[in-house]
Amino acid sequence: xxxxxxxxxxxxxxxxxxxxxxxxxxxxxxxxxxxxxxxxxxxxxxxxxxxxxxxxxxxxxxxxxxxxxxxxxxxxxxxxxxxxxxxxxxxxxxxxxxxxxxxxxxxxxxxxxxxxxxxxxxxxxxxxxxxxxxxxxxxxxxxxxxxxxxxxxxxxxxxxxxxxxxxxxxxxxxxxxxxxxxxxxxxxxxxxxxxxxxxxxxxxxxxxxxxxxxxxxxxxxxxxxxxxxxxxxxxxxxxxxxxxxxxxxxxxxxxxxxxxxxxxxxxxxxxxxxxxxxxxxxxxxxxxxxxxxxxxxxxxxxxxxxxxxxxxxxxxxxxxxxxxxxxxxxxxxxxxxxxxxxxxxxxxxxxxxxxxxxxxxxxx
Length: 364
Known about the structure:
Low-confidence stretches: 353-364
CATH architecture of the largest domain: 2-Layer Sandwich
Helix content: 25-40%
Number of domains: 2
Order of helices and strands: EHEHEEHEHEHEHEEEEEEHHHEHHEEEE
CATH topology of the largest domain: Dihydrodipicolinate Reductase, domain 2
Strand content: 25-35%
Largest sheet: 8 strands, mixed
C-alpha cells in the first residue's frame, strides 16, 4: 500500500514534532514543511532533510493529507484551502477560534468526503484510555492541568491553550448537552486569562470541575471521576491509574445498623476499608507516543473512510464549551469596596511596589 503524501504546515514547536514523527512513519511520505519564517525553514531542512516552502498553497495538488500546526487564528482559512483541494486534514487543537468556524469546516469535509481529525492528543494517552475502560460513565469529573509559562500559544488564553484538552476529555466521556458553565479567570502576563477554573453542568446531571494554569510553579496533568460504580484517577504525566471500586458489602441494608455495632466490628471495617469494602488498585500503564498514535489513527481513518478518534465536530463541540467558559469569565464580577470589577483583566499585579499590590480595572 502506497504511503500517504503529507505536508506539515507550521514549523514551530509542534510542527517540528509532527515532522519528525511523520518522517519516521511508514504510513506517510513527508513531502514538505510550510513555514513563513526563513530561519525556521533552514533549521527544518537541516534537521529533517525535507523540502520547505513559505507558502503551503504551492503544495496543493501533490499531497493527500496535511497537518496544520500554525496559530489558532489561521486554522480556519488554511483548512478551507486544503479541504477545497481534496486534502485530508489533521488540525492541532483547538480546531478553530470559534464553534461556527469549526462547523463550517466539518460541513466542508463531509461535502468533499474528506477526513478532519483534531489534535486532542490526550485521547491517546494510555492512562486516560485505561481509566475510561475501568469506569466508562462518570457522574462527577475533576481535572487539573498546570504548567509553567512556555511563551507558546500566547495568541489565546489558558482556556483554549490548556483547558481545551480537558474539555475534550469531558466531551468524550459525557454524551449529554451542556446546560450551564460558570467560570472565573485571571490574566497574569498579557491580554488573555492565564489561570481559569470552570464548573460545567450537563443535561443528564453530570458535573465537571476544570482547573488550568500556565503560570504554575508545579506542573500537573490529572483527571478523575466518580460514578455509582466507584472512582478512578489518572495521572496523565506519570501514566498511573488508581481505581476504587465498590464491593457487594456496600449495601445500604448491611450498613444501616453501623452505629449499633461494637467497637471491634467497627475497627474491622475500618482496617479493611480499602481492601474489601472499597477495594483499591493502582496500575502503571505502558507508555506510548500519543502523537504517533494520533498519526496512525489519522491514516486509518483516511484509508478506511471511517471517523477518526477526534472528529471535526467533536473538536467544534469542545470549542463551543470553551466559548461558554470564556463568556462566563468575561461576565464574572468582583467587588472591591465601591468598585465593581469584571473579567480576567479585573485583577492585575502591580510590580512597581516592593510587595506588589492588586490594582483593579473597573467594569464597563
